[in-house]
Write a structure and sequence with these properties.
The protein is of the alpha+beta class. The chain has one domain (about 5-120): 3-Layer(aba) Sandwich (Cytidine Deaminase, domain 2). Helix content is about 30%, strand content about 30%. It has three helices and eight strands, in the order βαββββαβαββ. The strands form two sheets. A six-stranded mixed β-sheet has the order 1-8-7-6-2-3. Strands 4-5 form a two-stranded antiparallel ribbon. Strand 6, helix 3 (about 90-100) and strand 7 (about 105-110) form a beta-alpha-beta unit. Helix 2 packs parallel to helix 3. The longest helix has 17 residues, at about 15-30. It is globular.
């Protein structure tokens, strides 16, 4: 069962998850994409990506970050951060991709300036 929580003003990520937010925000800004994402595997390695929108291929930022991790042989994720201007994470395929590698990974949604918007805690 998944649990999504809206986060109150002033909530902050812990230092390891804040690194993911910085990577996701940088991917978004670097490419000019609408969203950026970063994931951390169970060994602490990180993978970041932005939305891919080509005529022949469309991937959300979260899907792209998971693809990079999976292509590197990752079998488990600890956490993911999605940076978007959206108020709610409208990326069911990206969330499913994270859950394919880990039912219990925490997925954070952050605004473009880095503010924490919501948390999806995955399976308990």
């Amino acid at each position: 069962m998944s649990g999504r929580d809206r986060v109150g003003t002033g909530a902050e990520l812990d230092p390891e998850d804040a690194k993911l937010e910085v990577l996701a925000r940088a991917a978004r800004v670097r490419t000019g994409a609408s969203e950026g994402a970063a994931v951390r595997d169970s060994d602490g390695r990180t993978y970041s990506a932005a939305t891919v929108s080509l005529p022949s291929l469309r991937l959300s930022a979260l899907q792209a970050a998971v693809v990079l991790a999976a292509a590197s042989g990752v079998t488990s994720l600890e956490a993911a951060v999605l940076v978007s201007a959206a108020e709610t994470p409208d990326d069911p395929d990206g969330l499913r991709a994270v859950r394919d590698l880990s039912a219990s990974a925490i997925v954070y949604l952050c605004g473009p300036a880095g503010s924490l918007v919501s948390t999806d805690r995955g399976a308990a």
